[in-house]
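Quick look at the format.
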Amino acid sequence: MIIERNRLWDDTLLILTMAVLAGCGLIYEYLLSHYAGRVLGIMESTIYAMIGLMIVAMGLGAFAARKIQCAFNGFVWLELTIAFLGSSSILIIGGLIAITQTFPEILGSMFNLPPDAYPRGGIFKQLSFLAFNSPYFFGLILGFFIGMEIPLIARIREEIHQKHLKNNLGTIYGADYIGAGIGAAIWVVFLLSIDISKASALTAALNLTAGVIFILYYWQRLTWRKTLITAHGVLLVMIMAIYHYGNGWLSQMSNLLYLDKVVYSDKTRFQQLTFTKRNMGPKSGNIINFYLNGRLQFSSSDEFIYHSYLVNPVLAGSARHDNILIIGGGDGLALRDVLQWQPKHVTLVDLDTELMQLFKKPHEKLPHSLANEIETLNAASLRDERVNIISADAFIAIDTLLQSQQTFDAIIVDLPDPSHPDLNKLYSVNFYARLKQLLAGDGLIGIQSASPYHAKNAFIAIGKTVQAAGYSSVQQYHDNVPSFGEWGWTIASKIGTSPLTRLKSMEEFPTPHHWLTLPMTINAFEFSKGFYEDSDSVPVNYLGSHAIYQLHQKAWQDQQGLNNAHLQ
């Protein structure tokens, strides 16, 4: 009876351990996928590739587990290894990327080279490529060791029972699946909202705890016991250090990737926010750059060019501007320009509440000097009493607007580039068709449309998709925004004359702009000879097709050299 009771305790401990470790393993997959997506900028394909790679590696680890002679000792060393890799891999990846990106500048400074002569090709390019793809290496190694857990637990159970257990693997796999499901829930509900270094440290702590409990419970079956205890103690100190200081270290390494001084960095539930500042002297002031997930969103030096073209042609060509809808634009810059047209009411829809709150009340979180500059930049537009802010996914929010039978004199779509699958739906025929229902018959819609130079096919696809949504006339225009390069916009009328015809009928903008003129705007509708000659081969983006997302990702990969890196 006592033996059976002890075996019951053994089974309970091992099954619970398996469930916990399975949850940790799934979290590690998400951690590496999430971080790799930020680093590589290809979120969907990175996640799928990482998870697939780790699953294959887990299979290889399961085969390799049979080579471990002592399952008890092997299991403890295994958890030590997984805890070490799980807690430190993000920091190592960040360090490798920072070193490879800054090393050319260090050499350039040592030899007094001009910036355009910094060594960036050859071996430096290869090293940079390897560093940016290091998440896959760590995913492979970590997956390999995680794959050893199930075979070792199964062997330990049979050694304790001293016989072959008929349903052993079924029991272990059942605990594995349940634990993985719980791990996924913990990731979504809790870990996704905290710093990634803290998430990795907490997960590694569970592996370490499992190892300690195992040591204490099976003390007599283990060898090198003092070494194991010491190793656990050292790793515990390291995990605690990563938990407390890891985010700071990671931020410092990430900051090395920015040209200017990082003055503020934070993470919302949806994205990483970074502000940089460049001092241009007492007369010129500072240049503030704002990044989302490492990608520049605006620069205070030239954001007025982008927003002028986004807002003014649309409002000038619309019959009225009393009631305006803005999709995106949570920084309040497009809203600032809209308010110059003296609307009676503006509705702004943006997903990220934390981002909007940062730009609405910058003094609550930002350093004082930065807060003042942001408030000056967006003219405190988000606090204007005429503005109604809706914090929601625009794809869902417009259904609510439709149900309330609202109509808008003009619509401005200021969304990020379609660099993520979740954004692709906001560039679909379905989305533009529903916006058309919200638009007044004599109004116009304006859409930021990425770069006609760097992402030509994605730019053309946006125009074709708007056309497929049933708008009467769809046209595109472009101009140079120094921080971004050549940039483009799409403008469309619901019925009646084309937007360009409406603009050509005017002598000047109804509301004069401090920089943009009407002739400049009209000239922006001109493109180079043959620009649209291959447009028939460019697909329309229907809901679920991911056409624009794929076109944008291919353009981005080509620009970064990721599609031909193996040829370099």
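Next, a different chain entirely:
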Amino acid sequence: MTDAFVLDGDVAKPAFLSKERIIARPGFNRWLVPPAALAIHLCIGMAYGFSVFWLPLSKAVGITAATACAPEMGFFEQIFASNCDWQISMLGWIYTLFFVFLGCSAAIWGGWLEHAGPRKAGVVSALCWCGGLLISALGIYTHQIWLLWLGSGVIGGIGLGLGYISPVSTLIKWFPDKRGMATGMAIMGFGGGAMVGAPLAAMLMNHFASPEGVGVWQSFVVMAVIYFVFMMGGALSYRVPPTGWKPAGWTAPAAKANNAMITKGHVHVNTAWKTPQFWLVWAVLCLNVSAGIGIIGMASPLLQEVFAGKLIGVDLAFNELSAAQLAEIAAIAAGFTGLLSLFNIGGRFFWASCSDFIGRKGTYFVFFGLGFALYAAVPMLGQLGSLALFVLAFCIILSMYGGGFATVPAYLADLFGTQMVGAIHGRLLTAWAVAGVLGPVLVNYLREYQLSIGVEKAAAYDITLYILAGLLVLGFICNALVRPVAPKYFMSEAELAAERAHGEKSAPAASELEWSADPSSKPVAVVAWLVVGIPLAWGVWITLQKTVVLFQ
């Protein structure tokens, strides 16, 4: 099937958004594709930074102070009430909806993406994410929280899923020599989105704030416009390689060619989820992310409650600090959170690139083995009062959390082949949706239970950390059980040819399936990297400024 149409007996040019339209020609520079992916991921990655809106939105009616709803007002009444402020717990549902619908949309439409191509998927992602922001702006303007849930949580969450997986299959095919690095380059943008978006949102809210409003709905509108420009630019810049393409002069190393964990065949998405390998990798991702999300949720309060006055040079427990002292340590904790964000984004590129050398399975063994040691050591480091080692442990943990996301697409490509890896990755992301619920619930309820039985705040996290370490032991076992995919699951030659037929009508001739980048494309590639690199560098700079407080 093709998106081309017939006019007066002649085959017309393929549709603008079709996969056929974006098949690269000889000389195309593959280094133009990662910036396209980053342009989309840096925008949708703002999902991690949405908490910057919670406090202003919690006093959108009262402006200077929150206007509480009447005690007798029920939950459903509050959803439609416009005369009292929303609780932060109600706003937090947006965060949950983000990742539930990310996982569901990626799983449902991953197969469609493989056929439609990354350009069409990127455009749909831009419309959903930015359209969702505009619906949310209307919800804030009219003070209807259900519009926020619908706009950002549901519609925006669908945009997140499609935008997240749109570059995976394409980049893996463009970089057969560096699969891990390729996925790391794309997915690190999702980790960096909050670093760029959160300070931008804060600047916009300060600009639009007035005695009549907190400036959030205007900020949503401006960010929707900015993000739409970037995401459309990224989507329209995507190109896919013709089937069989490889870099000029490259041949697979003998060690990798003989590696049993790297399949020689291709598995259909509808077959992949029926294999034990899929569910083992699903469990590997779910357990790694559950532990990581759990640690993200507790990092800031853990630092403040364990070290308390020691952070500002006084020997006082957390409940003995004055309001001014609490504000000081909160600023230090904000710097700590910023530092973790840097390691989250850096870890995505670093660990995914490392996996090209030590293998995907070996990389996850490092995640679980080293992670277990660090999770188990954190309580002792807190008791010893070693702030530097405590911070270092958390930074390494967060780097492996990000690295797990970036490495798993390459892991799937090794096991199931590259033909439908984007769709398979989409279904695997249901693990993220589960982890997004499991991790925070596990951490929050365990902490509340321990505090209820009289455990000191400084010690309330110890058992939680040991349980998270236990999750990593389970992950280690699941990873050890992963074996090469049996040939019986591979697509037949006819099935593979049918899948490859999508978008092949305009492909280069077989003799043109190997090339180096045209030298004239290098200036364009530099400009493309600057377009995404400058905002990312600005976000890193802002974050580094905040982290300075931690070391003063």
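Confidence is low (pLDDT under 50) at residues 4-10.

See the schema section for token definitions.
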